[in-house]
Structures are given as structure tokens and as C-alpha cells.
Design brief:
By secondary structure, this protein is mainly alpha-helical. Among the domains are: 96 residues, Arc Repressor Mutant, subunit A, CATH 1.10.10.10; 85 residues, Serine Threonine Protein Phosphatase 5, Tetratricopeptide repeat (Alpha Horseshoe), CATH 1.25.40.10. The chain is 56% helix and 5% strand. The protein contains ten helices and five strands. Strands 3-5-4 form a three-stranded antiparallel beta sheet. It has a two-stranded antiparallel sheet with strand order 1-2. A hairpin with a 5-residue loop joins β1 and β2. α8 runs parallel beside α10 and α9 packs antiparallel against α10. The longest helix has 27 residues. It is elongated. About 2% of the residues have low confidence.
Length: 265
Amino acid sequence: MNFHILGPLQVSDFGQTNCAPRAPKQRQLLSLFLAHADLVVTVDRCIDELWVDRPPASAQSTLHTYVMQIRRLLGHSDLAETPDGRVRLVTTERGYIFHTSEGELDLTSMRATAERATRAEDRGDLRSASRHAAAALAFWHGQTLADVRCGPELRAFLSGVEEEQVGLHELYFDASIAIGESRKVMSALRLATHQHPLNETFHLQLMTALRDQGRPVQALEAYSSLRRRLNSELGLDPTAKAQRLQRDILASSPPRTGARSVRTA
């Protein structure tokens, strides 16, 4: 894999040397191309990303210079063409297309793996769903584009990718709990509730995992923590689904291993 954005920006040549550009604007522009690989990124979107609402009079010519510098860097790294022989960075009438091939960009590989997880869940193969979701999550190595200055276009991209990551975690936790592997995901679940304190699904999954491990007191503590947070920050109570789960636990109902009750009930 030669291009990495699910973490710090990295462009690896075939010797696995990181040859990503150092100049901030070039890093930003290359990140924009990689975030929308194989799609046209218009000149207007590039200018909006790089200069927001204050582009200089020379914006288009400066943008062209940045593109030339990125092409030069790719050429020096033997990445000017894709493995199937296409020119990597192409100028079109409307903007630019950055071509990638299968297995070159971590973002597209992650999404393909996530799609396999979703299909497995849809057909009820929760063991495969858990495995594929874990594999998709493994493509992240820290915060997406952690070392890149981001303008409005990249910030919108980051928001969408974060939603994808959260959805993958929800699928992974749900499938793992359903196949009786709640203990395996406990540490990751606790981290998820800490990082996303208003995400009720993560709290419900934590409650379910604790209940299934015979730890009802801790499960009820997780509910109380969720309720306090929702009340103090949003002025809301937990949903009816969360309240039903709390009553379930209070009534000491037996664990329902195999029930896909957190995300889909």
C-alpha cells in the first residue's frame, strides 16, 4: 500500500520510504486528492480548501504549481503511474483526478473491507461480520490526516470518515457481543464510550457486554453515567431502548447471547 491517510499522511515508495511532501499546502492538496481518489476534484474545490474565502489573485497559477510539484514528487518516487499503467494525477477540463489501483490507498481498502462486514451482517453471518469489521478498523493508525492542515473540504471529509469509523465500531461490538465475545471487546468498548460520551449505542453495547459477563452492577453504573451525561449536556433522558435494557438488568434477566439487540432492535 503506497498511500495512507487513515492516520498521518504517508506516501510510500517501493522501498517503503515516506516521501510525502513537506510543504503544508502541498500536503493539504495531496490529501484532498487522496480523500477523493478516482473522482474529479474541481479547481474551485481546491482553491476553497487551500485559501477558504481569501484566495490570492494568483490562486489558479499557484495551484497549478502545487500540482506540478506533486507530480514531480510522484515521479521521483516511481509513483507517477498506477500499476495498471494509468497516469497518476490527471488534469481535466474541470479539475484533477488522482488515480489509484486496488490495494494502493488505505481509505479504499478500508471501505471494501467494511462493505464485506456489512454484507456478512446482513446475511446473519455475525462471526464473519466481526472479523471483517475488525480488519477494516485496523486500517486506522491514529487520527485521520493527523499531521495535515485541513480546510473546509477536508474537514467535511474528516467528519464523514469519523462517522464511518463509529459505524464500524458499532457493527464490530454488536456482532462480537452476539457471538459471545463480549470480554474480547470490553477494553475497546470502554474507550469508545470515553471518546464518544453521547453515543448511546456504545453505552448500550457496554451495558449488554457487562450483563452477559454477569456484572449487572457495572452495567447499571454504565446506564447511570449515560443518563447523567445526557441530562447535563443535552437536557435529555436515555431513549426507551436504553430504559428497557436497564429494566432488563434490574430484573436480572438471563444473558441473551446471540441477540442482536443493541443496534438493530
